[in-house]
Amino acid sequence: MVDNPFYGPETQGDYKLHDLGNLILESGETLRGAKLAYRTFGTPNAEKSNAVLVTTWFSGTGKVMQDVYVGPDHALDPNRYFIVIVDQLGSGVSSSPQNTPPPQAMAKFPKLCIGDDVRAQHRMLTDLFGIERLALVVGGSMGGQQVYEWAVVHPRMVERAAPIAATARISLHQQVFVETLKEAITSDPRWNSGWYASGLVVREGMDRMARIVATLGRSTQFYQEERWRSVVGMSSLDDFINGVMKAYFEPMDPNVLLCEMHKWQRADVSRHAGGDLAAALARVEARTMVMPISHDGFFPPHECEADCRLVPGALFRVIQSPEGHMGLNGFEPGYMEQVDRHLNELLAA
Amino acid sequence: MVDNPFYGPETQGDYKLHDLGNLILESGETLRGAKLAYRTFGTPNAEKSNAVLVTTWFSGTGKVMQDVYVGPDHALDPNRYFIVIVDQLGSGVSSSPQNTPPPQAMAKFPKLCIGDDVRAQHRMLTDLFGIERLALVVGGSMGGQQVYEWAVVHPRMVERAAPIAATARISLHQQVFVETLKEAITSDPRWNSGWYASGLVVREGMDRMARIVATLGRSTQFYQEERWRSVVGMSSLDDFINGVMKAYFEPMDPNVLLCEMHKWQRADVSRHAGGDLAAALARVEARTMVMPISHDGFFPPHECEADCRLVPGALFRVIQSPEGHMGLNGFEPGYMEQVDRHLNELLAA
Predict the structure, then answer these.
(1) How much is the pLDDT for A215?
(2) Mean pLDDT, chain B, as a whole number?
(3) Is the peptide bond before A103 cis (omega within 30 degrees of 0)?
(4) Does residue B188 belong to the interface with chain A, where contact is any CB pair within 8 Å?
(5) Which Pfam families match (chains A, B) (predicted)?
(6) Fold adopted by A175-260
(7) From CA A328, how far away is CA B2, in angstroms rounded?
(8) From the candidates A204, A220, A225, which should be mutated to test the interface with B, based on the most B CB atoms within 10 A?
(9) Is B49 tagged catalytic?
(10) Checking CA distances to B33, which of A104, A107, A173, B146 falls within 20 to 30 Å?
């Protein structure tokens, strides 16, 4: 286990841990003493019909969802909804390689898939809150992969689904890209097959990974227009790479990111229908709004649109953001305004 | 020096070497005994008005330009033109890290820039062939960077210019991307700061680089449609990554690729006008046809179009190719047909 304050309450704010006990994983392995980190906002109404589940993305935690997506000035308004933000497994805050005791610590932490997240979240929502209907499941990127999984696996429970900047089945292009990220970390000899005393010793591999994320995670327009000046207040390309991209990942745990990459690389709802994506997405009963980001290099709009055509009655709303995939963090003016407008439209439906 | 048969005539076919003697580089350093590899097709006419210069791209040599772009069935027809294909410096065939004797061998090979190529090529064309006018300068990717350099530095000598899949100034996005490629190689401890007995010992770093090239070098559509089946005859994603991407780079020399990356990352005609790209491109007198590839992740059409607007009278023709940047290799049906049509239009102008 690695004591990393980045994943503690001093950085992540107020969250609670729900103990699931043993969680049998899709792989057949059991994650013992599985814990989900969550935070709630608002109050369930009498019919428990106002619950909203918010999921998290690669490298992100419930904190960024709380800070950027939830509040009285947003569609996800705690005055109207009972909002549950849940950290994905392996996020560093929920059960993860660096916070799980032996014999499942570090490199021995089990391999997970998105289906494990949804099973864990389903147990938490039903056991802890008695929730049987979700007015909305919403999340971006890997959070969107969880949304698709929810909508396919629990079609009657999910009334509305909003996968943002995500596809229902990982593309082959993303499989290759994620592998380059994994190789950037695992090729650092100090990663040492996952056994290190502190994530900081794997800084070289983490830095290499951060730069690769920068190439597809931001659009060519973001660079062409030097938008780091206005969007994140950086003074040059190096300042941006060091001060934003590398600095963002530096406090994180390498095994946490690798754990998430494994899931990211394999997300695929078609496995519920023998590999038939159309058949899997045809099961969705939720009113679905597919929301790609216009300049996304991870989950480009044309791939999201292909999914959208397979979901009965799904709406398609493109969020305009020259920042690209990492626009998800909400730094760009106008980004959250669009998200809120689209989510309000969906919530009113 | 490394004896690598990949860069010899058994692989590269018939080429000649032109000895330039000492080449003073833009950096101030001198490349001693500089040699340019070239091959010619066709015959100069009496006025020497039919000369065409063909340049090479990253990892490519004159051989691929000969095989794919030149022939009686192409716009670059040896029956009409005197075609000179010249390998860029550092290509492995022209003077390069692995074929240059001490004290400039291997890691001590000087850092080059695109301006050095154009100066070397200019000397060769004038000294060896007495060429004073070029009916056309054409090349793709780094070859296109050379085309822009030619058109800006020798505006009266270049009658027509066709930069394919290239920009006149490297984008900041490409600077970051190329850095990820360099880091993939240089992080391999067996690269050993450039001192290795054979490029094959740096296979891990080279393989990591090959995978990163695969992410932006081919389009998301290429993966989505599994075009490796039809375009290059591969049976799966792994088969494609191993059998095409890694196999393509495996016989190459790591220092050669790093030498080219250094140039690729710095190509910028605006340095001739104090950083003012518009002023530099305004000097171009060549009839110019800017030819991006529709799905190019390296030099996207919108960036090429921005250059095009700055070149007086330039034409803009997008080559449709879902393969993306590496479509340059001409495997895709219809690719060369478009290139030939556009070049014929330009040559007729």
Answers:
(1) 97
(2) 97
(3) yes
(4) yes
(5) Abhydrolase_1
(6) Rna Polymerase Sigma Factor; Chain: A (1.10.1740)
(7) 48
(8) A220
(9) no
(10) B146
